[in-house]
Amino acid sequence: MAKKEVTSKSAAGSASKTLSSKSTGSKSKSAAGSALAQTGAPEKQTSAAAATKASNVLRDGRTSMASKSAAGSALTQARNRKK
Q1: Residue 11, in any domain of the structure
Q2: With contact defined as beta carbons under 8 Å apart, do 15 and 36 qualify?
Q3: CA distance 20 to 22
Q4: Quick check: 74 and 28 in contact, CB under 8 A?
Q5: Residue 7 falls within a domain, yes or no?
Q6: Residue 52 lies in a domain
Q7: Number of structural domains, the chain?
Q8: pLDDT tens by residue, the chain, 83 residues
Q9: Half-sphere exposure of 19 toward its Cβ, with a 13 Å CA cutoff?
Q10: 20 within some domain
Q11: What pTM did the predictor assign?
Q12: If we measure between CA atoms, which residue out of 63, 4, 73 comes closest to residue 37?
């Protein structure tokens, strides 16, 4: 079942800031791109690969708050894994 989450305006702003930064890593940019693509689009979901990258971004202590905000938004919109 699809989640009905969308990226908030503040998270979209963080994602935009992350994507425009030259010093941001590829995992952060992947998560930010996923979050930005889901702005106003509840039918879209974060892919498993992007969710894994977003999870790594959240665990990394060197990551900026803007990147973590975008990664958290992307991860919220990922499909739940069944165990």
Answers
A1: no
A2: yes
A3: 6
A4: no
A5: no
A6: yes
A7: 1
A8: 556 788 889 999 999 999 999 999 999 999 999 998 988 888 888 889 999 999 999 999 999 999 999 999 999 888 877 66
A9: 15
A10: no
A11: 0.80
A12: 73
Instruction: Give the span between the Cα atoms of 59 and 16, in whole angstroms.
Output: 21
Which secondary-structure segment (H or E) carries 74? Answer: helix 65-76
Whose tokens are 């930005």? That residue is: 36
Residue 52 amino acid letter: T
Q: How far apart are CA 2 and CA 79, in angstroms?
A: 7
Tokens 């499909």 found at = 79
For tokens 């974060």, the residue is 46
Place of tokens 């165990």: 83
Q: Which domain holds residue 61?
A: 27-39+47-78
For position 41, what pLDDT does the model report?
A: 84
Scanning the structure block, which residue is given the tokens 């992007």? 50
